[in-house]
Amino acid sequence: MSMVPLPGMNALIESISKKNNLPASSVGEALRQALKKGYERYRKTYRESDVTYDEDYFNNFEVELDLDEEGFRVLSTKTIVENVTTQDHEISLTEVREVVPQAEAGGVVVVDVTPGKSEFGRMSAIQTKQVFNQQLRDQQRKIIQEEFRELEGTVLQARSLRFEGRSVIMGVTSGFGQSEVEAELPQPEQLPGESYNRTGGVFKVFLKKVWDGARRGPQLTVSRADPGLVVYLFANEVPEIEDEIVRIVAVAREANPPTRNVGPRTKIAVDTLERDVDPVGACIGARGSRIQAVVAELRGEKIDVIRWSPDPSTYIANALSPAKVVEVVLVDPDARQSHVIVPDDQLSLAIGKEGQNVRLAARLTGWKLDIKKVSEYKKQ
Known about the structure:
Strand content: 25-35%
Number of strands: 16
Distance between the termini: 97 Å
Radius of gyration: 33 Å
Structural class: alpha+beta
Largest sheet: 5 strands, mixed
Oligomer: single chain
Shape: elongated
Order of helices and strands: EHHEEEHEHHEEEEEHHEEHHEHEEHHEH
C-alpha cells in the first residue's frame, strides 16, 4: 500500500500531547481528522468536471495513520457493482474478480486511494494545519467537559491567574494530581471589594456551569457569589449538616447589592428533626466560631441563620431577624401575600438598608411581605 510520509510524526504527537495536557491518542485522532479534511481539500482543488461534492460525499473515505512508518494512507470503501457510475463510491465487479474471483455485486471492498506527496499540495497542507488546530481545541473541550461535568454544582479550589477584561481567569483542578484547567470568574460572580490581583491567590469557588459545544475562552464558569458556596462552607464547618442531623432548607443571598451603600448579605434557614439539637446554635458554633469561619472565607459578608418552620407566620417572623415582629397576617395564602406588623421603632430594621432585609426575607420564604408599623395598622 502507498503512503504519504510524515517524518517526525510520533515526536510531534508526543510534544503536542504534553504541551496541551492531552492523551497521545486524542492528538493522533485530531491529526487523522485534519488529514482527512486536507485530502478533501486536495480533491476539491482538482475537481473532476462531472462531480458534485455534497456534504456526505467523502463519508466513505478514511485516513489511516501508520505510527511505525510515520505516514498516512487514504482508504475508500467502495460498493461492488456491474456498471460503475461514481468512481469514488463504486468499483466494477470485473475489476474486483481479477483479485477475488468469488466476489459478488453488492459487496464492499476497501481501496487505497492515497495521493502522492507532491500531489497533496500546499493548499491542502494549510487546510490540514488549520483543521488540526481546531481539532485539538475540540479534543481539549471534550476532555474538560467529561472531567468536570459531574462536579458541576460543587466547590473547587482555585487560584488567580490573570485578568481578561472584567473577568478573572482562574486555574482549577478536578482532583489531586490532575492538570490545571482555566475557568472564568465573571464580574457579576465576584465579591465586591475582593482582590484578585495577586497571582496565585487561592479561593474557594462554586462551579456554576460546564459549557457545551464550542465556546471562546474557558469552558468552565465559576462563582464566588452563588448561594451554593454558602451551603458548601456551612456543610464543611458544621458536622451536624454533614451527618444530616441539621439540614439547610433555603438560602437567599445578595452578594452584589444594587448599590455600594449596602454590603453583601445572606439569610440561611435551617431545621432539624432532633428535639435536643438547636440547628441555629449548631451553625453558629461555640462563641460564633463556625459562622465566623464562613464569614472570613466570604470576606466579612453578613450572614443571618434563622430557624425554618412549617408554619408560614413563624417562618416569616424568623426570616425578618434581627427585627422583632408583633404579628404576621396571611392576607392571601394562595397568592402568598402577607402583612407583617412590627413595633414602630423596628420598621427600619425590618425593612433594612435600601430594603435589603425584607428583600432577602421574601426570597427566603417565597412570600410577598408588606411591612407595617403597629400604630398605623391599628388605625387601618
